[in-house]
Amino acid sequence: MKYVYYLQSIPHPNQHYIGLTSDVDARLASHNAGQSPHTSKYRPWKILTYHAFLDEAKAAAFEKYLKTGSGRAFRKKHF
Which residues form the GIY-YIG domain (predicted)? Predict the structure, then answer.
């Protein structure tokens, strides 16, 4: 199972991060421990939502979509 997750920085609420993982809790702990250079300066993070996929290719495609302009509009409307 693959998960597409959507994070929000607690001290900087306008900062968000989208990622793909097979273990959401471990990945959140990794972000909050500062192990990702892209997210370390905005930690701690909280999970806003995550979506499970059986097909890894579909999960990767959804993650990629959420990072596009229309994906941002989708996030604002639905998340």
Answer: 1-76
Sorted by sequence, the CB contacts under 8 Å of residue 63 that are 6+ apart come out as 4, 18, 19, 20
Q: Which residues contact 72 (CB under 8 A, 6 or more apart)?
A: 66
Domain boundaries, the chain: 2-78
Q: Please give the chain's pLDDT, 79 residues, in tens.
A: 999 999 999 999 999 999 999 999 999 999 999 999 999 999 999 999 999 999 999 999 999 999 999 999 999 899 8
Q: What is the pTM of this model?
A: 0.92
> What is the C-alpha to C-alpha distance for residues 60 and 12, in angstroms, rounded to an integer?
26
> Class of the 2-78 domain?
alpha beta
